[in-house]
Amino acid sequence: MGLTVAQLAERLGAELVGDGSGQINAVGPIETAGKNEVTFISDDKHIAALEKSGAGAVIAASRTEGFAGPQLLVKNVDSALIEALNIFAPKLKVPPTGIDPTAKIGRDVKIAAGVSVGPVVVIDDGVEIGENSIIAAGCKIGQNSKLGKNCRLDSNVVVYHNCTIGNNVVIQANTTIGSTGFGYSFIDGSHKLIPHNGVVVIEDYVEIGANCCVDRAKFGETRIGAGTKIDNLVQIAHNVVIGKCCLLAGMVGISGSCKLGDGVVLAGQVGLADNIEIGDGVIVGAQSGLFRNVAAGQQLFGYPAIDKREMMRVIGLTRRLPKLIERLKQLTVRIESIEAAENDKK
Amino acid sequence: MGLTVAQLAERLGAELVGDGSGQINAVGPIETAGKNEVTFISDDKHIAALEKSGAGAVIAASRTEGFAGPQLLVKNVDSALIEALNIFAPKLKVPPTGIDPTAKIGRDVKIAAGVSVGPVVVIDDGVEIGENSIIAAGCKIGQNSKLGKNCRLDSNVVVYHNCTIGNNVVIQANTTIGSTGFGYSFIDGSHKLIPHNGVVVIEDYVEIGANCCVDRAKFGETRIGAGTKIDNLVQIAHNVVIGKCCLLAGMVGISGSCKLGDGVVLAGQVGLADNIEIGDGVIVGAQSGLFRNVAAGQQLFGYPAIDKREMMRVIGLTRRLPKLIERLKQLTVRIESIEAAENDKK
Amino acid sequence: MGLTVAQLAERLGAELVGDGSGQINAVGPIETAGKNEVTFISDDKHIAALEKSGAGAVIAASRTEGFAGPQLLVKNVDSALIEALNIFAPKLKVPPTGIDPTAKIGRDVKIAAGVSVGPVVVIDDGVEIGENSIIAAGCKIGQNSKLGKNCRLDSNVVVYHNCTIGNNVVIQANTTIGSTGFGYSFIDGSHKLIPHNGVVVIEDYVEIGANCCVDRAKFGETRIGAGTKIDNLVQIAHNVVIGKCCLLAGMVGISGSCKLGDGVVLAGQVGLADNIEIGDGVIVGAQSGLFRNVAAGQQLFGYPAIDKREMMRVIGLTRRLPKLIERLKQLTVRIESIEAAENDKK
To answer: Mean pLDDT for chain A?
Structure first.
């Protein structure tokens, strides 16, 4: 799949500066892109690298004098990059529409037009799947769960019973949706499971990575808001409610009944204690541990997490503790010297 | 599935205070329960919320004057709640007894009466499964592994060879039992795997969440004690021995050859270095990192973890470091002033 | 499977000191090994335990006077231990060569001699699998992915399209290779996925534990260097490049575009922020969080991680903060006393 630089410019709606005759077959990073690759610059700090780049063309917001090759000027580099990546995406066979003969489909299942159900998929009674959704090989969907249209469940995803998944949702391989949460009462000398009658609701345009877990609610629902994106190996406990357009990076753990507002960003390995509320737009740095409610707009860091700037200062000071103690010793010596002088006078 | 309040009281063995004629269809939380839902109160701090609740009835240990609806008085609210949740659990089709025709069963396999083996399950030679156990779709059980009765393996669980699982054990979807542990010797310039001849033993009434890993032992066994409950995405390394009735929350990681006593509670994302011993009843706060043995009954927190109360004090003081340094500066100024005065006198 | 001590000595190429007539059936740890088990001693600190051991024989580098049983003296105890564990490994039926009839194989698939493809495996178009590799039950291999020879994919492993796996690679159950990474651009009010055109390359002799995730690159490749070993529940993000012979313990998380040199060791639950470079031979303690580049040979610890020895000192001092503040108070009192005396003189 190749395009000339001029053809690519046209596809991207870009202004072409320079020679449009070169051949482009792929997108590549500034450092390694060759003459048949288009690269991109989304931050001025990469200008020096761009000037040395061997890329056959660059997608940019404005012209860089030092880059000799052709430049494709666009309003939104991110958007044009996505388009270019789509143009040069590896060609893959589309999963065939219809139900693979090795799939096992229960009673009262409604499968809409254009759906692809892959090999050895198991779909239980009462399930509904909307138009054009793709259920890859090895998935299991429990009783009465409902998927919207244009969804994609990758291989070996497990969705338990009574879950609701919206439209345009992507769930990657080996992820589990609707498992029973970790709720026990200690009665008569042993931990008794609290039955989980509740459900999971995943709204439109949510994307969930591989090997994640989303537990169903004890009662009511665990809910993931529209447009929220979740990385791999993330844990969402029972009765958690996540707002819209949040970003949860890899290995984040959210304990039971937490409530996240819209646009919350949790970096990798962040953990939230149970029952806390996180306001809209909160940003939490990697590996932080949250034990309290957080007001909207805060930036947090640390274990336990506090205001990020304050935490950076505290961390800096702890690392100066050896010097601090040295200063304390010196002060003590000076005081002793003054005291001794006082005593001498007496 | 509905009951009148009076019928529900009878089922729960509760003393009914108030009108028993209302209809109850579900359990709901205090804040959102409607007139056809029963709620519960397990802590006096929720009394204010209960007084405002629109629930059709409440399960409680003692009467709350401010709640106008009918009250179901019981000795143990937790226990009655579990019973109520079971009564109103969503009705699901029970997995059919017998072996699905798409399952693949090896030689010398013993499957007891009442067992359900789901679609595309693979059971290797020499496996034994006890009465009434349910092996859901897509599970793989390795050679010679033995499951007790009343177990439930959810979809896509993998159990390797020679593992022993007791009675009434639940393992949720996508969990792996009996994988080879992370044990290497560096010989002649490369890491050579130490063969794992050992096994995994999971005792009665253990419950393990989704997407967990329990490694087999190098020699001897990895063991999880009776009644221990394990949340999602938990890692149990080779040769770990866990006592009875422990609680391991989500994303806990236990390194090789650790020994946990009975009743140990590890909160989310806690990590244990290898070869440490944790006494009975130890409670460890979220995200803590343990590098040393811990005596029975301790409460720990922090990274590295120490006594919880001490750690809270240390954390509080580190956050006062900016003020501390300010005080140190002021003291220095005062000493300089004294020294200057002394010098003036000379 | 038993051997006499003399036979075992011969198999291990060991010098036999003592009686060779005893029967050995297994390897056991010093503390619990019985008379039909051989144990081993790899560190002098275990000599006292060895002297009390009931083992039927010991593998050792040099003679221990206090141990009464036969001793098998070898140059490399680690190497002999591995050999002994292999000798006494539990006997398992080898997976049959050939393609199970329930496997589903796409077009233009090349499967070499000696390969075993298990039940309900799904292999897409254009896949190639090298000699003697074992694809266990339930695996899914995406279009055009290539595996070398002598590989072992355990049950339910998912490999997406266009991935390249070398020779002698082991991937344990429920692991996901080649999932789309967590890369989004915020455009017009929502997070848009950056297409992941890149691939995953796993070099020879890499071993990956259970329930791990290795994301494919946005462009170019995610690469795991030859001989690197990875524990369970590890996350490797898009465009990460890992060198040769690294060790990544359980629950390690490596963010996008990180570069690790050769021989890097990351202990359990360590996290790396994106785009950082870790030099050859760096060793990072458990639960550490890395946010900056690290030069070769460093030993790091902490959150955020710094030089390990410095961090241990800082941690020690933070825990002395209560005493430090006490000292500061005392100094203040002494200064006040001096100041008061000065004032009296005026």
So the answer is: 96
